[in-house]
Amino acid sequence: MKILVVEDSKKLQKSLNAGLRRLGYAVDIAGDGEEGIAFATTGDYDVIVLDLMLPKKSGLEVLQEIRRSRQSPEVLILSSRDQTRDRINGLQQGADDYLVKPFAFDELHARIQALVRRRFNQKSPVISIGEIKIDTSLHIAYLGADCFPLTPTEISILEYLALNRGRVISPEALLNQIYDSNSYSSKNAIEAHVSSLRKKLRLQGVTKLVETRRGFGYLIN
Amino acid sequence: MRSLSKTTTVSTILWVALILAAGQIVVDRVVSTQLLNQFDAAMESKARALVTLTKFDGTQVELDFADEFMPEFESPENPEYFELFLGNSSLLERSHSFGGYPESQFSDQSEEVLISDLKLPDGRTGRRISIKFVPQIEDKELRKTIAMENRPRAILRVSRERESLDQTLIRFHLLVAGIGIVVLFAVMLSVTRAIKRGLEPLIQIKNDISQISPHTLDHRITTEGQPKELEPIATQFNLVLVEIEKTLNREREFTSDVAHELRTPVAEIRSLAEVGLRWPDEKDIRSYFADIYDSSRQLDRVIENLLHLCRSEEGSIELEISTIKLDQLIEKVCQGLAEETAERDITIELPQTKLPVILADAQWLELILQNLIFNAIAYSPSGATVTLTTVSESGYCDLEIGNPMDDSLSSQDLNKIFERFWRKDAAREPGRHAGIGLSLVKSYAKLMGLEVRASISDNSQFGITLSKLEIA
């Protein structure tokens, strides 16, 4: 999953970037409103965490630009403005959620997960494909009742393909979802991670879960 | 609680009732007296007629009375009575209407005409006129020969019932009372309605006011169509409401801004601490401690400033004026800001001239200088020079702190920079400026009787001048 954090506080940028990456998200950071609009309207983000009081362009202006663009990310406003009218205004302008600072990091994570589920029309955090179960909240894959070890990148690929079940996902799209904009990873890295994922699935006796459509990409049926 | 409507209505009705009653009594008295006078006059004229019929022929007195001309003295129904006495109290004649009734008591009288009430022989209430007179002598010759004092005196008493008069008077009293009650009732109705109508604008104002609460301060009292006595009250009230609304909105904004200024460093500290605790192997974990320390200092500064602001605005600060060496105080403040100065690579250029010793409160002047120099450092571009200059004149010293502008301030902005939490841009440079520094300076300066003003020079140099520092 790819997240854009639009926040002018350098310290919050640092902690959110580190925390969300550790949870397996690809994170881009924008430090002001103009940068936020540039990132949000050109990148394919699943969730945007947006501060309201930003330099150059306000958070609400950024939100309006996002809603005018062709992108349709889920937007979570993260603001220290706690008045009811601020929340109402933010939600009415097109935000999907509103969280007041100071916040618990786990709550932010839970809300991001909820927004991701909403984005992929998933009611439950657990996706079941045959015997395989993927818990998107804990980022763990199960075979029956037993979990089997996967690296953060492998579980991210498995989750993204599972959430887009039945759709062919190109290596470029996977690359975009798994790595942030500053990463220099290539299609080859994606192929290597998919290959490793298949191997681990085979060891569990699961074959042909991740299919390859030559020249197009990967899919889970 | 006293009701204006009720009090006005009751007092108006009472006054009207009082005036009406007084008027009725006067009318009743006048009319009753008039009726009685007419009654008496009619009775007297009848009695006078009988007097003219009483003659003296030199030897005896005679009443030449004819029943057919005055049948009322004969009629058995509703009869009238007359009695004619000679001066020596002997009854000369009386009307047939007396019938078998006994003679009435004779009593002499000094007045010529005496009218009084009495009980008639038939038991009814009556009225009597007694006329004392000298009977006429028809013969002219005889009249000449008998001197007046030798002529006999006579008293004629005519009496008639007065019950019909009394009934008429009672009917009149009742009529007057009835008219009074009807008029009073009509007055009550009209007064009540008039007062109600008159108080309608007040009730309208009351209804308007009842809709005003701390959450609906934008509601206004209707001034259109108000009577000229109430229109200025409603207008003034609306003006007061506007001021209250502005003040309350300012306070709400202030509270919201304070919350924001406190929440931002708390959010930074909490987020850094949570992530650091969860992933202690994060590669730049040490920088988290530095960031948490920095945010806690910012938080401390915001809280300190807010407390100072509250105290200075409450006026609960007592000044301790002493002599202060200005150069030493400036040096102390600059040393305290050495970290910030180094961080932004700022050079502070101190005044070249010898600075005077001044009279001021050392603690508060230090806070003012701290805020001004801190502000100059925070809003200068990195690597800039902050310049301090002084001008001494007429026993006072002016201190100017100038810096090149990082943000492009306009002359319109100069009026706003002393407002609490005002910023040109909503951007936050964490740990640097909470937007209340200059409002604190303004507040402290006012407290110490100093003046503070901002200016922008042609070469985009921003300056704040603290003036009226008294030289010791």
Describe this structure in words.
The complex is a heterodimer of chains A (221) and B (472). By secondary structure, chain A is of the alpha/beta class. Helix content of chain A is 43%, strand content 21%. The model of chain A has no long low-confidence stretch (mean pLDDT 89). Chain A has two domains: 2-119, Rossmann fold (3-Layer(aba) Sandwich); 126-220, Winged helix-like DNA-binding domain superfamily/Winged helix DNA-binding domain (Arc Repressor Mutant, subunit A, Orthogonal Bundle). In chain A, α1 links the parallel β1 and β2. The radius of gyration of chain A is 18 Å and the shape is elongated. Chain A has helices spanning 10-22, 33-42, 59-68, 84-92, 105-119, 152-163, 171-178, 187-203, and strands at residues 2-6, 26-30, 47-50, 74-79, 97-100, 126-129, 132-135, 140-143, 146-148, 210-213, 217-220. In chain A, α6 (152-163) crosses α8. Chain A contains eight helices and eleven strands. With 472 residues, chain B is an alpha+beta fold. Among the domains of chain B are: 4-169, Beta-Lactamase (2-Layer Sandwich), CATH 3.30.450; 319-471, Heat Shock Protein 90 (2-Layer Sandwich), CATH 3.30.565. Helices cover 48% and strands 19% of the residues of chain B. Chain B has nine helices and 14 strands. Chain B has helices at 4-52, 140-145, 163-210, 231-278, 285-314, 326-336, 338-343, 362-378, 437-447; strands spanning 54-56, 61-63, 81-86, 91-94, 113-119, 125-133, 154-161, 321-325, 347-349, 357-361, 385-393, 396-404, 451-456, 461-471. In chain B, strands 8, 9, 10, 11, 12, 13 and 14 form a seven-stranded mixed sheet that branches. Chain B has a five-stranded antiparallel sheet with strand order 4-3-7-6-5. In chain B, β1 and β2 form a beta hairpin. The two termini of chain B are 63 Å apart. Classes of the chains: A alpha/beta (221), B alpha+beta (472). The A-B interface holds A 8-12, 14-16, 18-19, 22, 32, 53-56, 58, 80-83, 100-106 and B 256, 259-260, 263-264, 266-272, 274-276, 278-279, 282, 284, 287-288, 291, 294-295, 425-428, 430.
